């Protein structure tokens, strides 16, 4: 790097330039910041090298990530390093030769209705009444709204308006906030949980809605780690076999399942799915509607719907002739 302009300064300059053009770059900005801190801690001097970048990418997710994780981390550096070459020509630009191409999105485990019911029943038996209420309500809320686990855990009491049946999700994954309307059945379940919760913890408007339930942590924010630990225990207890591309069903698959069920329901009702995609994308907090369209081709259930629709527009005899030709 230049002796006059540090890596963090170059990153700030790059982000400011791109944001003036309308790009938000929230996630990339965080990644570039982590990379700058890593380079400083490593004592790196001089032009950026692929070796340094690959070393940083390998330690993503605490070094517990797979090849795909490292590949995606490295890809985030590519636009910045290309831009940086105009000032530091010796800057190296990472390509697919390091970790290979970015893997495609893995098919999620789509929960059947009976699996969700079994999960909630099992969650209602994990321990004392408060703990059972917390876990059952958390998993149920994600299943019926498609919230991200991080969004659900970040809710404070003031974000949960049960009089009008509305959640306020603040500054989620892409830095955007949104309103999430609730079905009356979800409102009833959340009311029951809030009633159980206030028996143990005062109703502070700024207190977390989903809370830890043991010892000195009683009333504090429920941790992501704890939620995943209990979910994994229940998954093993219920003996599920993953029907997706991941090794096991995940909490995040409840979100995927919500989207797939909604799309299937619209199809069964004879609705024009494409007319509703923007609304679903907004409801789920997707950055781009293309992320929502992925469900149409990324899951076996919806692939079957797409293929059946396609059959209506294809003459089977004509198709056979094409195959022979």
Characterise the protein shown here:
- Strand 2 (166-169) and strand 3 (178-181) form a beta hairpin.
- The chain contains 14 helices and three strands.
- It starts with 6 loop residues before the first helix and ends with a helix.
- The protein is globular.
- Helix content is 55%, strand content 3%.
- The longest helix has 18 residues, at 67-84.
- Mean pLDDT is 86; it is low at 310-325.
- The chain has two domains: 7-84; 109-325, Orthogonal Bundle (hpI Integrase, Chain A).
- It has a three-stranded antiparallel β-sheet with strand order 1-2-3.
- The protein has helices at residues 7-20, 26-41, 50-58, 67-84, 113-123, 129-145, 149-154, 184-197, 224-238, 252-268, 273-284, 289-298, 300-311, 316-324, and strands at residues 160-161, 166-169, 178-181.
- Helix 3 packs antiparallel against helix 4.
- The protein has 325 residues and is mainly alpha-helical.
């Amino acid at each position: 790097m230049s002796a006059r302009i540090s890596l963090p300064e170059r990153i700030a300059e790059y982000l400011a330039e791109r944001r003036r053009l309308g790009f938000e770059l929230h996630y990339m900005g965080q990644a570039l910041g982590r990379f700058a801190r890593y380079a400083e801690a490593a004592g790196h001097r001089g032009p950026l090298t692929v070796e340094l970048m690959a070393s940083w990418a390998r330690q993503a997710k605490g070094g517990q990530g797979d090849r795909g994780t490292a590949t995606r981390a490295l890809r985030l550096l590519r636009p910045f390093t290309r831009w940086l070459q105009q000032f530091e020509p010796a800057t190296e630009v990472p390509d697919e030769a390091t970790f290979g191409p970015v893997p495609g999105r893995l098919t999620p485990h789509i929960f059947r209705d009976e699996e969700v019911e079994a999960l909630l029943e099992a969650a209602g038996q994990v321990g004392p009444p408060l703990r059972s209420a917390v876990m059952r309500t958390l998993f149920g809320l994600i299943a019926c709204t498609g919230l991200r686990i991080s969004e659900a855990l970040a809710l404070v009491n003031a974000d949960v308006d049960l009089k009008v049946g509305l959640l306020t999700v603040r500054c989620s994954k892409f830095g955007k906030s949104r309103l999430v309307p609730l079905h009356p059945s979800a409102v009833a379940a959340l009311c029951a949980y809030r009633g159980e919760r206030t028996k143990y913890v005062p109703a502070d408007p700024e207190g977390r809605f989903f809370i830890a339930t043991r010892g000195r942590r009683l009333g504090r924010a429920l941790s992501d780690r704890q939620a995943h630990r209990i979910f994994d225990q229940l998954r093993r207890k219920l003996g599920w076999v993953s029907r997706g591309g991941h090794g096991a069903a995940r909490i995040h698959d409840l979100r995927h399942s919500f989207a797939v069920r909604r799309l299937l329901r619209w199809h069964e009702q004879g609705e024009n799915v494409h007319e509703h995609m923007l609304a679903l994308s907004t409801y789920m907090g997707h950055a781009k509607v293309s992320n929502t369209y992925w469900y149409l081709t990324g899951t076996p259930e919806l692939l079957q719907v797409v293929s059946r629709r396609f059959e209506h527009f294809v003459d089977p005899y004509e198709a056979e002739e094409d195959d022979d030709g």
